[in-house]
Amino acid sequence: MFVKLLTIFFCDVPDIDECETGTHNCPPDFICQNTPGSFRCRPKLQCMNGFIQDALGNCIDINECLSTNMPCPAGQICINTDGSYTCQRISPSCGRGYHLNEDGTRCVDVDECSSSNQPCGEGHVCINGPGNYRCECKSGYSFDVISRTCIDINECRRYPGRLCAHKCENTPGSYYCTCTMGFKLSSDGRSCEDLNECESSPCSQECANVYGSYQCYCRRGFQLSDIDGISCEDIDECALPTGGHICSFRCVNIPGSFQCTCPSTGYRLAPNARNCQDIDECVTETHNCSFNETCFNIQGGFRCLSLECPENYRKSGDTVRLEKTDTIRCIKSCRPNDVNCVLDPVHTISHTVISLPTFREFTRPEEIIFLRAITPTYPANQADIIFDITEGNLRESFDIIKRYMDGMTVEGQSGKMVSDVEGVIEFHQVEKMGPVVDVSTVRQWVVHFSSSDWDSGSPALV
C-alpha cells in the first residue's frame, strides 16, 4: 500500500487591496471594503431601526409581532407597522352584569349591591351574584306578598313578655328593652337590675336604697319635708305640744335639737340639761348679808333678814335647813319669878322664809306649805290641835286645811292666787288638852313670803 502525502506550504505574500487597485466589482451604490485576501461590497444607504438590509442593499421591514418575545403586554395585540409596531388593547364584549377589568383583558362581575343607589330599597338586603343580584328582607322585616315590599316585624307585639324583663320598644327592623323607674338595664340588654339612687345623693341628709326606689330620712332633730320628700326640716321641739315639758324653765330651739335655759340669775342647769337647780347663795356664801342679818335662801335668790327673838325668848341653836325653807325658832326662856312669862301660852316662835313664783296663777287651791304637829300621848279624843291665821292674810289669798297623816296632824296652807306676794303672815298653833281642864299650848309661826322668778311649785314642809 502506498500513502500519498500532501504538503501545503504557506507563503508570506502581501494582501492586494482590491478597493485601491480598482479590481473590485462593487456596484456604484456600494462601497468597497477590503478584507484580508478579498473585499466586501457594502451599500452606501444604511437601513433605519426596524429594517433589515438584503444582499442587494434593499431595506426590508422587520415584523416584530412575529418575534418569539411578545412585544406587547398581556391583554393587548401586536400590529406591525413600517419599521415598527403598535400595541392595541383587546376590547372584549361583556354581557349584562359584567364589565372589563382594569387591564381590559377580561370581563368581571359588576357588584350592584355596592352601588350608592341601593337597588333593593328600604327594609331589604342586597345579595350579589355572578352577573346579577337578588333582594331579600333584612332581619326584623318580612316580605309582604301584596305590596311586594318588606315590612317591619313588631317583635314586641309578636313575642309579648318574652323579649324584655320590663318594657319592650319596637324600632324599624329591631327592638330595644327599657326598664321602669328605679331600675337600669343589665349588660344582656334584656334584664333589669335595681338602680342605687343613693349613689347620686338625692337626699339632703340620709338615703336608704330600696328595691326599685329609695327613701330619704333625716337625722335626729329633723323631719322629712311634706313638700318634696327629700329635704329635711328642723323640728322645733319647743313648739311641740310636749315642748312645755321638755325644759323646766325655757326651751330654745337650735337646728336639729334644743337647749334648755334657766333664769339669768339664781339658777344653774341641772346635769340632765333640762331642769333648773336653785343656787343656794347662803350655802355658797355668795350673798351680801351683814353680820347681824340672817341669809335665807329663796328660789332664784336670797333674802337678808334681821330676825331677833322677842323678850323672854332665845334662839334655838342654828338655823334649821329644810328642803325649801329656812326656819329660825325662838324658845320661851323666862326669868326667875316671872309669872306672866310662865303663864304666857306661846312657847315657841318660828320664823320661816318661803319663796313663791310671781308668774304662777292657781286655777284652784294648791298646798304651798305644810305645818306639822305631833299629837301628844293623851287619852283618845282628849287633845286637839288648832291652826289659825292671825295676821297678814289681807287679800284672803291663803286658807288652812287640816288632815291627819301617820298619827300627825298636818295643816296644809293653800293659796288661791299667788301674784306679787311679799310680806309676813302669822298664825298660831293651839293645842287644847282635855275638855275639862283648859290647858292650851300656843306656837306662833311667822312665815315670810317673797317673790321669785321661777319655782317648781311643790309645797314646803315646816
Automatic annotation (TrEMBL):
* SMART domains named among the record's database cross-references: EGF (SM00181), EGF_CA (SM00179)
Q: Which residues cross the membrane?
A: none
MF term (GO), any: integrin binding
**Gene Ontology CC entries for this record:** basement membrane; elastic fiber; extracellular space
Q: Output the InterPro entries linked to this UniProt entry.
A: cEGF (IPR026823), EGF (IPR000742), EGF-like_Ca-bd_dom (IPR001881), EGF-type_Asp/Asn_hydroxyl_site (IPR000152), EGF_Ca-bd_CS (IPR018097), Fibulin_C (IPR055088), Growth_fac_rcpt_cys_sf (IPR009030), Nephronectin_domain (IPR052235)
User: Keywords assigned by UniProt?
Assistant: Calcium, Disulfide bond, EGF-like domain, Extracellular matrix, Glycoprotein, Repeat, Secreted, Signal
Subcellular compartments: Secreted, Extracellular space, Extracellular matrix
Keyword field contains Transport: no
State whether keyword Transmembrane helix applies: no
CDD domains referenced in this protein's UniProt entry, alphabetically: EGF_CA (cd00054)
Q: Domain (EGF-like): give its ranges.
A: 109-151, 152-193, 194-233
**Main subcellular location of this protein, as a coarse class:** secreted
Highest taxon in the source lineage: Eukaryota
What's this protein's family per the entry?
Belongs to the fibulin family.
Q: What is this protein called?
A: Fibulin 1
Origin organism is: Meleagris gallopavo
State the gene name recorded for this protein: FBLN1
